[in-house]
Amino acid sequence: MPPFFFPTDYYYLMNLSSASALIWWVIPITGVLGAITYGVWVTKYKSKYDNQTNRSVDNFNKFQNTFRRKK
């Protein structure tokens, strides 16, 4: 039971403010972790992904060119 000098909804407001404080910690931490993950992906895996994409696009262009009429 809350002391007589606290309003009855004091504990509700305390829970509400603690939830908003948690959000102010969770959002920046999520952003930092996302930035670190993206940085690792760019430095380690992006070149491999780009090479595979370029090969795939080149193969598709060669395939399309087989249907074009030669002049």
Structural class: mainly alpha
What is the end-to-end distance? 92 Å
Share of helix, binned: over 70%
Reading the helices and strands in chain order gives: HH
Instruction: List how many beta strands DSSP finds.
Output: 0
Q: Name the overall outline.
A: elongated
Provide structural commentary.
- The chain is an all-alpha fold.
- 77% of the residues lie in helices and 0% in strands.
- It has helices at residues 10-44, 46-65.
- It is elongated and about 85 Å long.
- 0% of the residues are buried.
Short description:
This protein has 71 residues and is mainly alpha-helical.
Note the topology.
Blueprint: H1 10-44, H2 46-65
Key terms for this structure?
mainly alpha, 77% helix, 0% strand, elongated
